[in-house]
Amino acid sequence: MSDVRCPGCGIPRDIGDNYCRRCGRQITVNLPEVRPSSLPAEVRTIPPSLIGSVAVLALGTGLEWAARRLASGAAKSAARAAGRALLSRGTTSNQQVDNNAAARIVEEVLYIRQVRIQQ
User: Fold this and answer.
1) Which of 21, 39, 95, 116 has the fewest CB atoms within 10 Å of its CB?
2) Rounded Cα–Cα distance for residues 83 and 79 (Å)
């Protein structure tokens, strides 16, 4: 490749030229693709210890999620049962209370925030 010439006009050119300096023709060099015939193929596998660790972690996370889910459901149902017991105990002790009193109970939470603006 010491004698590289323009395919259009035939004048010598540098290897780094993309265009001919005389005629302006675009110079493309199609080099053959060189591949080694025997690439060292390295097959990588996931170590069994890593697979076991991920499995244990996933199982533990799933069990923790299930335990929390069951605990929150049990706590909610226990709170509802306690609320019903209080409502039923309050209406049985006082027979003159209207039967619809339990339906008219309104719970409110009031948040008070004090903001001081300094000028």
Assistant:
1) 116
2) 6
**Cα distances (angstroms) measured from residue 102 to each of 35, 37, 41, 89, 107:** 84, 85, 76, 11, 12
Distance (Å, rounded) from C-alpha 19 to C-alpha 26?
A: 4
pLDDT in tens, 48-91: 899 999 999 999 999 999 988 888 878 788 778 877 777 776 55
Residue 64 token pair: 């923790």
pTM for the model? 0.33
Task: Count other Cβ atoms within 10 Å, centred on residue 6.
Answer: 18
Q: How far apart are CA 14 and CA 22, in angstroms?
A: 12
